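About this split. The held-out portion is used to measure sequence recovery: a designer receives only the structure tokens and must propose an amino acid at every position. Recovery is the fraction of positions where the proposal matches the reference. Here is one held-out target exactly as it appears in the evaluation file.
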């Protein structure tokens, strides 16, 4: 374990976070100074952060350009009919134009009721009792799913393209994108923004994707095959053995190693023998 920890720590120390910033959806909330604008742009950015980076960043550029200097103020003061004109035709993969407009409607409703997304999350997160953010996330997502959508769709429905924005551990989802949002909000190191200051970093759950899952199986961090919430919790628990206070700092190293294509999975013996994480590889 000590050799693996040293390797992970070295990857973390050597990681170029500034270079990552220019190729990551977190670049959008980094453009703002006011916490309320950072929070809103971070949530919207994480919702659309799937697929090819150059495609979803184009959609985000158009959205935030239309919102002006303060996305927070825009949501609170711009009527839905005007938003429809500003964002006409904006869609992305599984999300139709109405789904994106409804996302903005739901965020506006949350802000009117709770003043911030943080306040809503804390309503469900039991600071003294919860060992992870799971309960907070369940309540957070359920509250958003419960908002009436009739103003956008003409009736109170929740199409698949809208529900994709609001995954929950209650359905077993790994919740990659919302866990990414929570990492940005809670973790206060490297490129993460850390504007939610009352929730410890070690309660976060890793944003699980194919790359993290594959390399985590190879390293023995999980024995599960399904990329679900239980796998994300299991991997996070394994990383806590290396840093109990900030386990998600290793997210960067693992994700980079996976995306690089070096990791081919457990079925490729040659790649495994040459892997930097393999203590038996030739030197």
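Reference sequence for scoring:
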């Amino acid at each position: 374990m000590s050799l693996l920890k040293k390797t992970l720590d070295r990857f973390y120390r050597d990681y170029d976070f500034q270079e990552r910033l220019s190729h990551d959806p977190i670049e959008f909330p980094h453009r703002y100074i006011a916490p309320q604008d950072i929070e809103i742009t971070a949530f919207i950015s994480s919702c659309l952060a799937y697929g090819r980076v150059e495609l979803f960043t184009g959609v985000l550029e158009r959205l935030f350009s239309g919102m002006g200097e303060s996305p927070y103020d825009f949501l609170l003061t711009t009527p839905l009919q005007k938003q429809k004109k500003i964002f006409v035709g904006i869609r992305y993969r599984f999300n139709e134009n109405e789904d994106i407009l409804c996302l903005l409607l739901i965020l506006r409703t949350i802000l009117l009721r709770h003043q911030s997304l943080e306040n809503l999350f804390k309503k469900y997160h039991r600071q003294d009792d919860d060992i992870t953010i799971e309960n907070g996330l369940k309540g957070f997502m359920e509250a958003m799913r419960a908002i009436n959508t009739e103003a956008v769709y003409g009736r109170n429905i929740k199409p698949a393209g809208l529900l994709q924005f609001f995954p929950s551990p209650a359905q077993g989802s790994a919740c990659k994108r919302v866990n990414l949002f929570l990492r940005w909000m809670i973790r206060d190191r490297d490129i993460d923004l850390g504007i939610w200051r009352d929730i410890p970093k070690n309660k976060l759950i890793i944003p699980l994707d194919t790359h993290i899952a594959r390399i985590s199986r190879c390293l023995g961090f999980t024995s599960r095959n399904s990329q679900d919430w239980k796998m994300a919790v299991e991997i996070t628990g394994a990383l806590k053995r290396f840093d109990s206070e900030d386990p998600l700092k290793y997210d960067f190293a693992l994700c980079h190693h996976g995306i690089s294509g070096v990791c081919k999975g457990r079925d490729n013996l040659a790649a495994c023998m040459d892997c930097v994480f393999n203590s038996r590889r030739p030197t």
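Annotator remark: The chain has 16 helices and no strands.
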